[in-house]
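Hi there,

I know you've been waiting on this one. I reran it after we fixed the sequence typo, so this is the corrected version. Both the input and the resulting structure follow.
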Amino acid sequence: MKLEIADLSLIGDRPENEDDYTVITQEAWIFAAIADGMGGHPGGKFAAKYFCRGLASNIHTLTKDLTLSPQLIINTLFIQASLYLNSKLYQLHYPEARTTCVAAFLNQDYLTVAHIGDSRAYLINDEGIKWRTQDHSYVEQLYSAGEITEEQMKKHPQQNLLLRCISIHEPPEPDLHQFPALAPGEMLLLCSDGFWGNTSRDDMLALVKADNLQKSLTEMSLMGYKKAQPYSDNITAIAIRYAHLE
């Protein structure tokens, strides 16, 4: 299995980038995560930054134990990263800082995804979007009830009203999903709401066949940024694609 990876993070029209991300590649596995600090709470950029650092600093220790399942690895990572985050936020005096997170652990057998909030994971192939994670948000509930469309979600005035996030006030409760490993023609896309909120389904599908994955992801993100100007959010995305077969 040969995987291609592209990633980026853009500040958009915001005064600072409150998104953070990490990508760690090993011979036997890949771990990737995106955290989106919540702008309505002071210190959001620190929440995203230190949660990602907490994830990255513990992944190697956990993967040494071959008896651990991918789901147990990623769930334990979230707990350990939360403890690290809590200590940092107390030191910085940002007890109300909050962040979302979506993370994925891939090996030759499984794709395991965890998420809290409205940062998303998509599994995409030539035929379309096979699935996406379900946001922990008020507008996701409206969409699930059939009251609004997916396109209306992106511009809904309460789109940023989250029902679950990561904070020092309670242990993280990610939704965990396990799937078969990526197959030829498939791509995993992790992204913050600044990306998916201004990127069409057709654009996402185009990434699967793009000749240059990094170039296409960058161009797509810049198009989304220009579309949302002068109110563009931070934009962060990681694409992991099964390499094209010649």
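Quick highlight: The chain has a mean pLDDT of 94.

Best,
R. S.
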